[in-house]
Amino acid sequence: MININSDTNPSQINDRNDQNNQNEILSTISKLKQKLKDVVVILGHHYQQDDIIQFADVVGDSLILSQTAAKLDKPYIVFCGVHFMAETADILCNSRLSNSRQQQKVILPDLSAGCSMADMANINDVETAWNILTEVQQRTKNVNKIIPITYINCAADLKAFVGKHGGYICTSSNAEKVISHALKFAEQLLFFPDQHLGRNTCYRMGIPLEQMPLYRPTLPSGGLSSEEIANAKVILWDGYCSVHQVFLIEQIVAIRATTPDIKIIVHPECSFDVVQAADLVGSTAYISQVIADAPPGSKFAVGTEINLVNRLAKRFPQKEIHSLSHPYPCLCSTMYRIQPKALLAALRSIENKKPINVISVNAEIREAALLALQRMLEIS
Ligand code: SF4
Asked: What percent of the chain has pLDDT over 70?
């Protein structure tokens, strides 16, 4: 019972009640996790909040998590990430071509946990773009072969599209390897959905910006003339991660003015200007490794999601680590939808043998998508 006196304000009582409820939820998750340990693996993406990460058996980027889940071969995979990640796990764990010994059910604790970047490309628009590009190709004879490449952050049907058209999936860790491999077989690439990963990677590989026009799916012919399409090396889709657009060149200038010996390290989903101005650029795995390897006293301003930055700061107290957008946190709000109560509901549903929020990709899409994933894994 809460003892109310004249100094206690009602909002403090609510806060205390919320905290008590949260503690109860966390303690129940802990007990259930222990009870279900032989049948459940909990995966936590780097961008998840600490209240979720504390229960994760594996923490990492989306591909590492899916690959680990397939190897662990537990019947239930609770994927604390976003929708496309749970789909990727289902593709890797349950395809005919995979080595999984049993069907694994992939559960996304909150079905509204999507990815705004993934939503910027859909199969109808990509097929329209493909028809336009191949028609120009045939008419102008400038390009003999075009290959589609998708960032892993996309829906399963787009991964399948790429699989069917001889293309590849890439991650932010292997984009350069995948793109250079594809360019051995094609004169032109269609890269979706993240324009920034495509542009930043291709520019680093020596492809000039003029040869990377932006295809805007809302405009007729993507807003490009036949000449622009015919002369392009890489056609970039007009998609982006709204979270990583929070980082600005002005923040880099300001932080360097006050702390000249700081290193700016950013994710390649950031804009071209930010990536050009940064000292170091790479995936979440790369960022974590660079910071882990740096000597005590090193200083970093990090351009990626705040939960990962905060965890790195806690893990390495002898180094100075903060967000590039400090004091404004850069939070992936869709990842944040995976709340402890949603994780608890997912575990309870497994305990009751009535699993909720199971993500299951259609078999035909799954097989075609797996082809593209396997091509990527062979290269990287
Ligand atoms: S950080 Fe960006 S790309 Fe990653 S899940 Fe969130 S919205 Fe999607």
From this structure: 95
